[in-house]
Amino acid sequence: MSSVTLKNVCKKYDSKIVIDNIDLEIQDKEFIVLVGASGCGKSTILRMIAGLEEISGGDILIGDKKVNDIAPKDRDIAFVFQSYALYPHMTVRENIAFGLKMRKVDKATIEKKVQEAAEILNLTEYLDRKPKQLSGGQRQRVALGRAIVRNPKVFLMDEPLSNLDAKLRVQMRSEIKKLHEKLQTTFIYVTHDQTEALTMGDRIVVLDRGVIQQVASPEEIYNNPSNTFVAGFVGSPQMNFISAKNENGLISFGDVNYHCENLSSVSALTLGIRPEKMVCGGDLKFSAKVEMYELLGSEKIVYFNIGENKCSAKLPPDYEIGETIELSVNPSDIYLFDAETGKRI
């Protein structure tokens, strides 16, 4: 079993709380992604699971074994860092084999494991090269190979693609997913990139300031965010947030009014509308003046204001700055949040 369980885990630096009593169950063979802005605590969680960071409270279990006081080398995990951390004077073969040599594994077993890892990662022809002779993507595959040969229960990955260019990141995303399917091992992956989270994870853990905001599948996170933080963090362009009032179920924003049945007594609302849902042909119509746009080839991201709220819409590339456009949205595409707490209504 390679499940990972965090029970009431917290981390403090002096009086500063970095991780605030979180509970999380990661299933055996699951690919789970921890996502959030810089400083939210996602890498700290990874380092606590690895044993590189002491916990201030709670318990961490790998399988059914509590590992709070177990040394990192005895936790049966492999850590792939943001930097490749390869030895420049060693060949690819020697880099991949290094951890096994330190554990006094016999030469025949080392060679077999290195060859198997090289085949999985398409590195066979590069085994005798030095890291400086490799591309960024190839170096990252070597770092993965060094982890694979240990056959760990759990893979921990801390923003492993952040040093790659955009094209390589897309390629490596699919390679890491294929690797997970081949190895059938638990992967815990940290990123600040919501695209990586949505495309790679079986489930996503959204963090903010050391607190878990939501744990769910990518589809659930995108379609049913639990609060304004999750709604605003996931999705590109970011969800539009519009201040609105509720009077006995009559919701008003800008010059738009519509009725919403069974709405709670919350008077101050924040409406959330995805930019791609700001379309022509919806039931609720309003006008807006184009302030600026970004051309994306077949479409434009058009920016405008609704009252004091800055908004955007994905539209055909026909609109120009200063033009007044007619937009519309369906009530079913509007998310309602409590303006005070940010929680979904």
How do you describe this structure in short?
With 345 residues, the protein is of the alpha+beta class.
Q: What can you see in these coordinates?
A:
A hairpin with a 2-residue loop joins strand 4 and strand 5 (65-66). The chain starts with a strand and ends in a 7-residue tail after the last strand. Helices cover 24% and strands 34% of the residues. The strands form 5 sheets. The chain has a 6-stranded mixed sheet with strand order 6-7-8-3-9-10, sandwiched between helices. It has 345 residues and is of the alpha+beta class.
Labels describing this entry:
single chain; 345 residues; alpha+beta; 8 helices; 20 strands; globular
Order of helices and strands: EEEHEEEHHHEHEHEEHHEEEEEEEEEE
**What is the percent of helical residues?**
10-25%
Question: Taking all residues together, what is the mean pLDDT?
Answer: 92
Task: Give the spatial strand order of the biggest sheet.
Answer: 6-7-8-3-9-10
**Shape estimate:** globular
Structural class: alpha+beta
Q: Note the beta-strand portion.
A: 25-35%
SS summary, helix count? 8
